[in-house]
Automatic annotation (TrEMBL):
InterPro entries documented for this protein: Flavoprotein-like_sf
Protein name per the record: Flavodoxin
Top-level lineage group: Bacteria
Lineage summary: Bacteria, Bacillati, Actinomycetota, Actinomycetes, Kitasatosporales
């Protein structure tokens, strides 16, 4: 599983750490979890993974530019080879994540990826329930990939 993230703030970082903790929980067996910063993730990373977990903040009413850059780099090289693969995502925003969610949903629909878990969207400081939802997101995606 490939986790592509842009986590510049403490709030995004806390959500990312919870996702990773869930994806690498001891009961998850046989799933290799690869973490890549959105600006460093490549088409070969995407092609080598069986599923994807994306995370980023909402900036200026849209997904963070780093995640958009990731999609721009991998869209056409991965379009045909990754159709039907499962994905999930988390988004953090100061007051609104609507544009970011719409952008992620549109691009992943174009890629033909299959959402395998409900998105975790948080505005403001993540609470305990938000962090638990991120843990569940990571665990759910990883468990779905177990051999």
């Amino acid at each position: 599983m490939l986790i592509v993230h842009h986590t510049p703030s403490p709030n995004c970082q806390a959500m990312f750490e919870a996702v990773v903790s869930g994806a690498t929980a001891p009961e998850i067996e046989g799933v290799r979890v690869v973490r890549r910063a959105a600006l460093a993730a490549t088409a070969p990373d995407v092609l080598d993974a069986d599923g994807y977990l994306l995370g980023a903040p909402a900036n200026l009413g849209y997904m963070a530019g780093a995640l958009k850059h990731f999609f721009d780099q991998v869209y056409y090289p991965c379009l045909d080879e990754t159709r039907g693969r499962p994905f999930g995502y988390f988004v953090h925003g100061g007051n609104d994540v609507t544009g970011a969610v719409r952008g992620i949903e549109a691009i992943t629909t174009g890629l033909g990826w299959r959402r395998a878990a409900d998105a975790v969207t948080v505005t403001g400081e993540p609470g305990k329930a938000d962090i638990e939802a991120c843990w569940e997101l990571g665990a759910t995606l990883a468990a779905g990939l177990m051999a």
